[in-house]
Amino acid sequence: MLPDFRVRQRDYLLEIARALAEELNLDKLLERILNISIEMLAGQAGFIALKTETRGWHARVWLGLPRALVQYIEPYLANITENSNEPGKLELTQINQLIRELAISGSFGMLNGVGLPLVARGQIVGIIYIFRSYSGSFSNNDRTVLSSFANQAAVAVQNAQLYNQVNQEKQRMTALLDSAADGIMILSPNLHIELINPALERMLKRSEKETQNIEHNQVIHWVNPPIGLTLENAVAGGWPLTAHANLYVEGDLSLSSGQPKLPVGITYAPMVSSEGALINIIATVRDISRFRQAEELKSTFISIISHELKTPVALIKGYVSTLRREDARWDRSIVQESLSVIEDEADRLSLLIENMLDASRLQAGGLSLKRTDTMLPEVIRRMAVRLQTQSSRHTIVVDFPSDFPAVLADENRIEQVISNLISNAIKYSPQGEIRLSGQVRQDIVIICVSDQGSGIAPDDIPHIFDRFYRAPEMARNTKGAGLGLFLTRSIIEAHGGHIWVDPESGKGARICFSLPLNPDVQTSDLTVV
Fold first, then answer.
1. Cα–chain-centroid distance for residue 100?
2. pLDDT of residue 528
């Protein structure tokens, strides 16, 4: 039979072994270890301090000690040093000296104490201190038992810390997946879906539960053969051969019935174990609708600009070649008429180039404005006189109240706006009056340009300020690149104003814009009467 104290020691060691296997909550585990230690050594109090990379040494749990005393002891823990010759061995001299001084002074009624490091796998994870109130000192057997117990406790603490780290990493990974703008899908080695993030749920219009454990090709279904090998074809051919063998596939996904197809680019990246076995495949799904639109916009731009540049260049070259013929003598009237055509086409070419440059500036980060006090009635009357020479079939009328206030604006840019609006009115109305009117509201001024043409079709109204947009009917009958109204809107919005189409003005088109009297105050959309 074992002596009673040996039986108790055995029971305590079995208890910590159970804690090692069962408890992974760090705080509960530390409390359990401290309770067992105090009971095993017939102590009255104690504390466990841990060492972390962020906080250094700090008391994590204590029992039988006032908080004030723990807070008094804690700064001294920073003096604990590790013996470089013997990894895992701590120098506790100053801490033990502090304990003795406290015991002698009777500050907390304890006569002696013992502290041992918690060492697991050659690393210091913490220290444990046990105090008791009777005069007998800690024997070598006490220290041996506590040391054996501390070693097992250290392993349990380290396991709990690792478990907490894994949980934190899992939470961090979940947060990253949930906040990612791109869709993310995790596949098993047999190409079944294990997880999709919220962004991919929104793309596919399907919840994670609906896709879990479903085969990849039942969810990623291509409308047409994609650019590049599909994942299934690549795997059949031996992919991945290495851990860095990423696969990129681009195409249109077929979604549920009634949903439009979704252009996506998918990058598949394998996760491979150190033995070379495939663990998972991580798929990053990016919605490339905007890239497609940009490509279409680029193609449209090249097509329109090529056409628009070709016409004036051809006319200028044709008239110049004709005038330079040495075998002909031209009347002065013919020469003047030809030079007039050349000048008009050169102006048109210059305007087109200027609009293209402005569109590029907007793309690069906006227009720079040089604001000054601007009298809009004077600017508009001056533009009306200049543009009246472009048409004998139209009458341009300017109607402003006499007390119209000055506006802080870029006069050159406002002239560009008025020029675009009047030129459009001349271009799209065969004849009649073009009226420019102004009115003053509480904190804004409103300018409207109306004509007596056929008006703007309701279907075109939402798009007329878009870049390169031209109404299909007008595009067949008139020239243009679709940049004028786009630049007009950009200039007005850069001033803090708004521009819109008034669809209830009766016959003809009516486009209005507002400018703030005080550019520092935000204004809201207003209707015009």
1. 59
2. 41
Closest CA to 501 of 433, 428, 442, 396: 428
In whole angstroms, give the CA distance from residue 366 to residue 490: 8
Task: Please give the residue that has the higher pLDDT: either 120 or 478.
Answer: 120
Which residues is 196 bridged to in the sheet? 185
| Residue 132 identity | R
> What whole-number distance in Å separates Cα of residue 194 and Cα of residue 280?
9
How many angstroms separate the Cα of 225 from the Cα of each of 185, 222, 250, 252, 253?
Answer: 21, 6, 9, 9, 10
Q: Is residue 3 scored above 50 in pLDDT?
A: no
Which helix (H) or strand (E) segment is 254 a member of? Answer: none
* Average pLDDT of every residue of the chain: 78
The percent of the chain in helix, strand and coil, each rounded to the nearest 5, is: 45, 20, 30
CA distances 479 to 285, 449, 473, 485, Å, are 41, 21, 12, 14
Q: What pLDDT was estimated at residue 145?
A: 67
Is it the case that residue 523 has pLDDT exceeding 50? Answer: no
β-pairing, 183-187 vs 193-196, is antiparallel
Give the C-alpha distances (Å, rounded to integers) separating 244 from 196, 271, 365: 22, 9, 37
Q: What is the pLDDT confidence band of residue 471, given thresholds at 50, 70 and 90?
A: low
- Return the C-alpha torsion angle 184, 187, 193, 199, nearest 10: 0
Q: Which of 389, 396, 377, 374 is nearest to 517 (CA)?
A: 374
Distance, in Å, from the CA atom of 311 to the CA atom of 481, rounded to the nearest integer, reads: 12
Q: Give CA–CA dist 76/4, Å, rounded.
A: 38
Q: What is the DSSP letter of 224?
A: S
Cα distance between residue 401 and residue 516, in whole Å? 17
With beta carbons less than 8 A apart as the criterion, state whether 253 and 220 touch. yes
Residue range 417-431: mean pLDDT, rounded = 86
pLDDT band at 491 (very low <50, low <70, confident <90, very high): confident
DSSP 368-437: ----EEE-HHHHHHHHHHHHHTT-SSEEEEEE--TTPPPEEE-HHHHHHHHHHHHHHHHHHSSSEEEEEE
Q: Would you say 199 and 223 are in contact if contact means Cβ atoms under 8 Å apart?
A: no
CB 483 within 8 A of CB 362: no
Q: Single out the residue of 106, 105, 76 nearest to residue 92, CA to CA.
A: 76
User: Which domains are seen in the chain, by residue range?
Assistant: 4-174 (3.30.450.40), 181-287 (3.30.450.20), 292-365 (1.10.287.130), 372-516 (3.30.565.10)
For residue range 47-77, list pLDDT tens digits in order.
888 877 777 788 888 988 888 888 887 887 7
pLDDT exceeds 50 at position 458: yes
Q: Which helix (H) or strand (E) holds 19?
A: helix 4-22
When comparing pLDDT for 426 and 14, which is higher?
Answer: 426
- CA–CA separation, 127 and 502 (whole Å): 79
Q: What is the pLDDT of residues 94-143, one digit of tens each?
A: 566 666 666 555 545 555 677 777 777 777 778 888 887 766 566 676 66
